[in-house]
């Protein structure tokens, strides 16, 4: 394990080729990272990459060679856009966390397959839609959280792609009319989690608890 926490680190990169065959985890949490580039690092056993609470504003694109990666945490950074194509080939990836960023776009610029991904967390961003969901091939996905974004309707990925997934959407300005088709999922299956208290003037009334 390589653990670098609270060290005011601004850049993490490899200036020359290096091989660390036993390295299973990199934890560079709560630094001031703006640059993360491990293009020259060969770490065939890397399973966990934790980069939360930094200042990363550009999506790391040198990750596809870490084919054993299971957890990628980019929470609390400054990303405004994220392209799933940057993770293509990560067939073991199970959890992706890109919460508490500044995401306006979460997309796939072409079809991408992540066969092991189970959890996708995009809490507290500025997302209004997920228009390229038809390019996402995520056969194992079971939980998606979009809490505290700007959605006014449930994304079509839920009804047309993964109707059995648990989707958490509290703290979004959802219109009541957009929820009518999901009564069973909300009230009985509890697969779609929203702030359903009352619908009076056409806008969802938010619960006091909120929750993530």
TrEMBL record:
<keyword id="KW-0677">Repeat</keyword>
<keyword id="KW-0472">Membrane</keyword>
<dbReference type="InterPro" id="IPR050333">
    <property type="entry name" value="SLRP"/>
</dbReference>
<keyword id="KW-1133">Transmembrane helix</keyword>
<dbReference type="Pfam" id="PF13855">
    <property type="entry name" value="LRR_8"/>
</dbReference>
<protein>
    <recommendedName>
        <fullName>Leucine rich immune protein (Coil-less)</fullName>
    </recommendedName>
</protein>
<dbReference type="GO" id="GO:0005615">
    <property type="term" value="C:extracellular space"/>
</dbReference>
<keyword id="KW-0433">Leucine-rich repeat</keyword>
<dbReference type="InterPro" id="IPR032675">
    <property type="entry name" value="LRR_dom_sf"/>
</dbReference>
<feature type="transmembrane region" description="Helical">
    <location>
        <begin position="136"/>
        <end position="158"/>
    </location>
</feature>
<keyword id="KW-0812">Transmembrane</keyword>
<dbReference type="InterPro" id="IPR001611">
    <property type="entry name" value="Leu-rich_rpt"/>
</dbReference>
């Amino acid at each position: 394990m390589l653990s670098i926490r609270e060290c005011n680190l601004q850049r993490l990169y490899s200036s020359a080729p290096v091989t660390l065959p036993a390295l299973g985890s990199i934890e560079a949490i709560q630094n001031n990272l703006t640059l993360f580039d491990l293009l020259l690092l060969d770490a065939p056993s890397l399973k966990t990459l934790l980069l939360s609470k930094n200042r990363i504003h550009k999506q790391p694109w040198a990750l596809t060679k870490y084919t054993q990666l299971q957890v990628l945490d980019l929470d609390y950074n400054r990303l405004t856009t994220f392209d799933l194509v940057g993770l293509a080939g990560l067939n073991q990836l199970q959890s992706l966390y890109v919460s508490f960023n500044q995401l306006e776009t979460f997309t796939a610029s072409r079809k991408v397959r992540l066969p092991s991904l189970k959890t996708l967390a995009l809490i507290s961003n500025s997302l209004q839609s997920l228009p390229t969901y038809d390019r996402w091939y995520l056969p194992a996905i079971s939980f998606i959280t979009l809490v505290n974004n700007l959605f006014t309707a449930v994304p079509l990925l839920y009804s047309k792609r993964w109707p059995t997934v648990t989707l958490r959407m509290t703290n979004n300005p959802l219109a009541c009319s957009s929820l009518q088709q999901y009564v069973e999922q909300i009230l009985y299956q509890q697969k779609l989690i929203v702030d359903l208290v009352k619908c009076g003037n056409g806008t969802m009334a938010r619960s006091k608890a909120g929750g993530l």
